Amino acid sequence: MKGDNEKGRTRLVAPRNTVNTKQLYTFYILKELSKGKEIFGNKVLEEFRNKFSTSPLPFPVSSSTIYDTFYNLEEKGYVKSKWIGDDFVNKRTKKIYSITDEGMQYYKLHVANYIDALEKNKAVIDMLIKMLKY
Fold this sequence. Notes:
Elements: H1 4-7, H2 21-34, H3 41-51, H4 63-75, E1 79-84, E2 94-99, H5 101-132
Antiparallel strand pairs: 1-2
Helix pairs in contact: 2-4, 2-5, 3-4
């Protein structure tokens, strides 16, 4: 009789952390910026809160993670930022972001792999659900 290692894996490895929110924010931000838009942190936060407001499970929308994602993207050279507003007339300033050539290249090279991983996780979850239904 062969051992488990000789037969191959005999246990199911279920997806644990199905969605890495930081990666999700990264690719969402780069996607929006790749359309030629300039965006800011609160806009992304609002988009996610609106999108997932009717979700059957709460989705962890975190302003600190969104801003940390922008910071990391800027550190890597994928986005650049500028401040808009006028302190002189007491108008609140905000930091808006645009994509760099490096950010566009990173997005184009890596988003398909992230989407593929999400689809594989979804397929496994769909199989698990099917197995448990009558």
